[in-house]
């Protein structure tokens, strides 16, 4: 299957289980990979037939930055559902990194894959 991907999408989120994390924004980085048949877009050369990675990235950033959450699992799930429902995508892989979470590790994160029936 063809793919559209976005790597290193940066957001500034209120994210974490600790009190200070609800007041101080910190970066969450997203890698997104979507199934998308490219043939119609390639034939028409029209953005209307493409999965618009610009619109998709802006929507993800807006969702993530809109409200505080405790777990990166929650964010990953919400992002996956947004992409499936708002962008007519049938399968998405969402990887979330929280690079400032631990001083003893370069980064931590979760990765999920979700499909629409
Ligand atoms: N599986 C998870 N473990 C932890 C999370 C999380 O979101 N998912 N969050 C934290 C804290 O917020 C931590 O990142 C603060 O440094 C701990 N474990």
UniProtKB/TrEMBL annotation:
Pfam families in the cross-refs: FolB
GO-annotated molecular function: dihydroneopterin aldolase activity; isomerase activity
Domain Dihydroneopterin aldolase/epimerase: 4-114
Involved pathway(s): Cofactor biosynthesis; tetrahydrofolate biosynthesis; 2-amino-4-hydroxy-6-hydroxymethyl-7,8-dihydropteridine diphosphate from 7,8-dihydroneopterin triphosphate: step 3/4
UniProt KW Lyase keyword: yes
Known catalytic reactions: 7,8-dihydroneopterin = 7,8-dihydromonapterin; 7,8-dihydroneopterin = 6-hydroxymethyl-7,8-dihydropterin + glycolaldehyde
Gene Ontology CC terms: cytoplasm
Keyword entries, A-Z: Folate biosynthesis, Isomerase, Lyase
Region forming the signal peptide: none
Cited InterPro entries: Dihydroneopterin_aldolase, FolB_dom, GTP-CH-I_C/QueF
Enzyme Commission no: 4.1.2.25
GO BP, sorted A to Z: folic acid biosynthetic process; tetrahydrofolate biosynthetic process
SUPFAM superfamilies, alphabetized: Tetrahydrobiopterin biosynthesis enzymes-like
This protein's record includes keyword Isomerase: yes
Biological function: Catalyzes the conversion of 7,8-dihydroneopterin to 6-hydroxymethyl-7,8-dihydropterin.
Family: Belongs to the DHNA family.
Listed name of the protein: 7,8-dihydroneopterin aldolase
Protein's organism: Pseudidiomarina sediminum
